[in-house]
Design a protein that fits this description.
three-stranded antiparallel beta sheet, 19 strands, Creatine Amidinohydrolase, Chain A, domain 1, 10 helices, alpha+beta, six-stranded mixed beta sheet, Creatine Amidinohydrolase, 357 residues
């Protein structure tokens, strides 16, 4: 899908809402629509014209990257520049991204355009972005390939005596040296009982023989993210750990088996959750099953027990059930998959066999 087709989707939203324009402020949405990768921009999509505004730091970059829009370089704040242009007229109906526009800026818009009807719409572009084209999927696959390679390298370096922070630094370094633009998020590295915290932050804790190791990390490549979690043991796994690991793996396999285009997100979550609940560990599965991945590490759709929306064709989502037993250990297994008509294409190549180093 090219930029023209993406902008056409926004213009269709204008017709649906009987609006004359859409003010887009969320940078990942702007990148998806016109290709700009900088950190300062506004986009105004009208039925006949598209206006892009950035500041002087990005003059050359904007002219190189932006497609399908008139490029304007602001000599003041972006919203002040917008207000000085004739693009928005009195009595017009303008959509804006309610979940992304801060209240202070919204008040400024009302002051500068007192006779304009502004309407907040939420997640409409996020839902357009959820369906990935082949180019986007290739970029995500490239990011995941780097992450898979880094995991293989880490398995040679995970030894008693290393700290969580040291291993986290290795993760960042190995991603960057393989071509990653940046990390998808700060790596999660958790040893022993610390692994029972789903979003543990790396500490100075030292790895000991017998410890569980939970690793969750990913990177951006060509603008798109990867995400993967694996849980392993240094030394021999306990029987309890083996049992829980197998339960989490079975839960993931169950979800992967039923996940397909137009399946309800809550049904996929429920399939995995049921496996864990029936094994007696339901209270220890404390988060949703997964989330969309693309230009952002967390995108729509969300594989959640509270989401009754169907998962769209060619969405890229994580499937990551987990069990976290306070004071003992946590287990999470996460793959990144493309949702297809009859199932999924798994982009994650790292084995899920229980690994004892």
């Amino acid at each position: 899908m090219g930029y023209t087709e993406r902008l056409d989707k926004v213009k269709q939203l204008l017709a649906l809402h009987e609006a004359s324009g859409f003010l887009i402020t969320h940078l990942p949405d702007i990148r998806w629509l016109v290709g700009f990768s900088g950190s300062s921009a506004l986009l105004l999509v009208k039925r006949e014209s598209v206006y892009f505004i950035t500041d002087g730091r990005y003059t050359e970059q904007a002219h190189q990257e932006v497609r399908g829009a008139e490029v304007h370089i602001a000599d003041r704040s972006l919203f002040e520049y917008l207000a000085a242009q004739p693009w928005i007229q009195a009595k017009e109906h303008i959509l804006f991204q309610g979940e992304h526009l801060v209240y202070q800026v919204y008040k400024q818009l009302l002051t500068r355009f007192p006779e304009v009807a502004f309407e907040a719409v939420n997640s409409v572009i996020a839902k357009c972005r959820a369906t990935k084209d082949s180019t986007e999927i290739r970029s995500i696959q490239g990011a995941q390939q780097i992450t898979d390679e880094v995991f293989s390298i880490l398995c040679e370096r995970i030894r008693p005596g290393i700290t969580e922070k040291e291993l986290a630094a290795e993760i960042v370094y190995e991603h960057l040296r393989r071509g990653a633009e940046r990390m998808s998020f700060d790596p999660i590295v958790a040893f022993g009982p610390h692994s029972a915290l789903p979003h543990a932050q790396p500490s100075d804790q030292t790895l000991r023989k017998g410890d569980v190791v939970l690793l969750d990390f990913g990177c951006f490549y060509e603008g798109y993210a990867s995400d993967m979690t694996r849980t392993l043991v240094v030394g021999h796994a306990s029987e309890t750990f083996r049992e829980v690991y197998q339960i989490v793996l079975c839960a993931q396999e169950k979800a992967l088996k039923i996940l397909r285009a137009n399946q309800l997100a809550c049904a996929v979550d429920a399939a995995a959750r049921r496996v864990i609940e029936e094994a007696g560990y339901g209270e220890f599965f404390t988060h949703s099953l997964g989330h969309g991945v693309g230009l952002e590490i967390h995108e729509w759709p969300r594989l959640s027990q509270f989401s009754e929306e169907p998962v769209p064709l060619h969405a890229v989502v994580t499937v990551e059930p987990g069990v976290y037993i306070p004071g003992q250990f946590g287990v999470r297994i996460e793959d990144l998959v493309v949702v297809e008509e009859q199932g999924v294409q798994n982009l994650t190549r790292t084995s899920k066999d229980l690994l004892e180093l």
